[in-house]
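Case study 2.
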Amino acid sequence: MHINLFILCDDPVSLAGLESIIDKEEGVSLIGRSVTAGDGMRCLDDSRVKPHVVILGEPPSKRSICENVQQILTRYRLDKSRPKIIVVSQNDDDDVVLTAVRVGVNGYLTRMRSAEELLDSIQLVAKGGAAFSQTIAARFSRYFSSVPKFSEPTALSGLTSRELEILTLLASGLGNRQIARRLFLAEKTVRNYVSRILTKLQVHDRASAALLARDAGLGAPAAVPS
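Prediction:
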């Protein structure tokens, strides 16, 4: 799919860096950008601006993330599908990342190792996935795996054993293709399972499902097959 991207970045230098990466990707069009939240939100008020993904670049605080996400969700509440949101920041404090996930972001990237990590993440969240830097995914997996497990978590009790298995891998940061390879299933089959899991958990995206799974103690770090 061709992706329309909007960047809201408080730091001009970081904005220039993000733009230089996006310019190299034919499948992504930068339809708008702003270095101030107010100007950015006014741009998004234009009904002709229809981003698939919004990047929040170097937000100055946890409060800024919450406010920006809430405003974006409010602006597109009547649309059939709202833009997906990725935070790109050097701040990888656990409290900030967890708060971002809870308010509705679909990805959180920090200290990216390559331009491809950003571009792959944009593609992933645009298709309904969740994208987190490996260090964040590993750290959160270790944290949530240390939470005491309940014999029958209320939110997950309606899932089959196969659905729980897929949810565990999802919560470990694996995408549909990686899960399919791990379980020797067709990728389409995995997509169908994920769709049923989201319906049963009454959540709208993979990030929210992963958060519920980790709260229940699922999602230990998983080795990704090469």
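The two ends are 25 Å apart (CA to CA).
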